TrEMBL record:
This is GGDEF domain-containing protein. The keyword Transmembrane applies. The keyword Aminoacyl-tRNA synthetase does not apply. It comes from the Bacteria. It holds the Pfam family GGDEF. Residues 206-331 form the GGDEF domain. Keywords: Membrane, Transmembrane, Transmembrane helix. SMART domains: GGDEF.
Length: 331
């Protein structure tokens, strides 16, 4: 929530800052242009005063109003008597005009005296029509940064929304790569990681049993009946194990390698472990129907506690299975 508010605050602050900055450029540009325009108009008015040899106020006023857009014009004689006065009718000036005035960067009225000093002229040009396009530009420059930033944010949100399914697929694919394709069980590295985290979380209060189940007939099936038969063999063992996982969610099963399955039985006693082995083997034998192939599985059971190392545990279980296999051959 805080990060969202911060993003909104940053967006608004940046939009306003850039809008004011760009608007300032427009205002300064407009101010420079009208000052240049006023300078040219003063020179033009001076030309009219030079050509008005008789200092005819009426003629001069007509010339000035015809040549310059005026906000007001006042012509007086050297005694201060008003000979001519014009004031532009009031109407809505463009927004930029009062802004320029409030910032003191608008033009000031100009005063001139004819060459024989009989007429005094005070005038100020009207720049409303000239400044009207700048008002539109001022609006645009103020709101454009917010609009551009908003569109940019929408594009980013849209792109992130599009990438979410892709990221989810990639995550699922990554997780899928960690699972055994035949059984759907996590692999050996996941067993090590899970076992170590399990011991660490319990902080010395955790014990249980570990089962190593070896698919002893896999090599025979692959060589004599083909790999599909071997794959089916592995799948049936995995199915028998998975059936027990549905009955006790505390159990964790892993496909350690091509031949071996590993089961973590938290807080299981030796008797409970033997009962679980019996259930798994019975489930497997019911589904394994290959003729002339033994349905017996090699299984090792080891106790573990908080001092047990995962790699050592697997090595000890493997040694126990191999020792039992040697004993079987000797008999």
């Amino acid at each position: 929530m805080k990060s969202k508010r911060l993003r909104i605050f940053t967006f608004l602050s940046l939009s306003i800052f850039l809008g004011i900055l760009l608007s300032g450029v427009v205002l300064i540009t407009a101010s420079n242009l009208i000052h240049n325009k006023q300078h040219n108009q003063i020179q033009l008015v001076e030309q009219f005063t030079y050509s008005n040899l008789g200092d005819n106020a009426k003629l001069l006023s007509k010339q000035l109003r015809g040549a310059v857009e005026l906000e007001f014009l006042t012509i007086t004689d050297d005694s201060g008597n008003v000979l001519y006065r014009y004031i532009e009718p009031e109407y809505n000036a463009p927004l930029i005009t009062p802004i320029l005035k409030s910032l003191s960067i608008y033009t000031e009225p100009a005063s001139l005296i004819t060459s024989n000093e009989e007429l005094h002229i005070e005038f100020h040009s009207s720049y409303d029509q000239f400044l009207r396009p700048f008002t539109h530009l001022l609006y645009f420059m103020f709101f454009a940064p917010g609009l551009i930033l908003g569109i940019n944010m929408l594009i980013k949100v849209n792109n992130s929304t599009k990438t979410l399914p892709i990221q989810a697929e990639q995550a699922n694919a990554a997780n899928g790569n960690k699972l055994d394709k035949l059984t759907g069980l996590p692999g050996g590295p996941e067993f090590i990681e899970h076992f170590e985290s399990l011991i660490k979380e319990k902080q010395g209060l955790h014990t249980g049993h570990f089962l190593l189940i070896r698919a002893t007939q896999l090599q025979h099936l692959n060589f004599n009946l083909g790999y599909p038969a071997g794959d089916r063999y592995i799948q049936l063992i995995g199915f028998a194990i998975s059936e027990q996982l549905t009955k006790d969610t505390n159990l964790q099963a892993f496909k350690l390698n091509g031949f071996d399955f590993g089961l973590i039985l938290p807080n299981y006693s030796a008797e409970q472990s033997e009962q679980l082995i019996l259930q798994i083997t019975e489930q497997f034998k019911e589904s394994f129907l290959e003729e002339n192939v033994s349905s017996e599985l090699s299984i090792a059971t080891l106790f573990y506690d908080e001092t047990t190392d995962a790699t050592t545990l697997v090595a000890q279980a493997n040694a126990q299975v191999e020792a039992e296999a040697e004993d079987t051959k000797a008999v």
